[in-house]
Fold:
Amino acid sequence: MQAFIFVAFWGIAGLIVYFLIVGGILIWPIVNVLAYLKVLLFPSAVRKIHGVDLNVLSNTQFTSSISYSDVEYYEEFESMTETNVKAIKAERTADTEIKKLEKLIKSASDQFEALGNLPRNKDGSISQRSNKGKQGVELQKSINSHERDLGQINGKYSSEIEKYENSLEIERDKLFSRPFNDWLEWRGRMGRYLGNRDAIVFMVVGFPLYFFILSIFSWLDLEDPSFLGIIELYVYTVFVGPVSGIFDLDVFKEGAFSILITYDYASYLSRTWDSAFTFYNWLLLTLPMPILTLCTYALRYHQHTSKADTVRPTEKMSLKEIKSALKQRVIDDVPEAQA
Structure:
């Protein structure tokens, strides 16, 4: 019983995996085309702004998402932060508790130094066998206690200052890194868009060419291969053969499968190509083109994104660079407005 369950489980799992592979082989060209049409007709905002023509792009153009109001907001925020930090530092300087603790620490330190060199135990601690030693230990405890209290008060002020400085750093990163982040998003989308386009071109040209090559060279286990025959064998190998082997040909009489292929055509393919339905033919027909198309996409994606590096802005532009780019953008827009 356990052996039967084991065989049944792996049989079902293998069937599911096979249909996932077959479905991917059949559907991926369609999905590839639909994905390309989607981004072609409905481009992302960043690609819509910058396009894909590197000849008309420069690294300063990625500041287009920054406006003068963004710069003004940052400058106001920076000024407000500096004012608040100065106020906190002034409050810390004037804090009477800090002054009191600093005086107590200085006084205790002076008294401790006045005791001179105190004898020490083997562990380095002050020996308390003498009155000076006992006095030194008490002074040391007093200094440590006052320093802890002083550290806590200074820590509160430092924490407030750090909070303002961190907020400013966040705003600075949001503004100064925006051109680079926009470029990074544009670079990826542009690479995928053009890489997908090139993969589709390769697929449209490559599939017929590959079938033509198979019809000329005797790579398949066929007596007299022809271009049309290779196409029919491809359809039978990746779809009709596996489906009819599991569900029988009657499955093409009605239902979802009949929408894709008619029963008569499925019967014709079964009669004509069932003897050629081998694992070797399956591998040679179905795997090379998807793998080559994927390699084409990866190669072209890498090439397009590498070219995009020529207009790469700095990861963090300075405020001066941003203002200069905004000014140049206004100058460039004037002739367009006049035209």
User: Anything to note?
Assistant: The chain has two domains: 29-66+180-338, 68-177. Residues 68-177 form one domain.
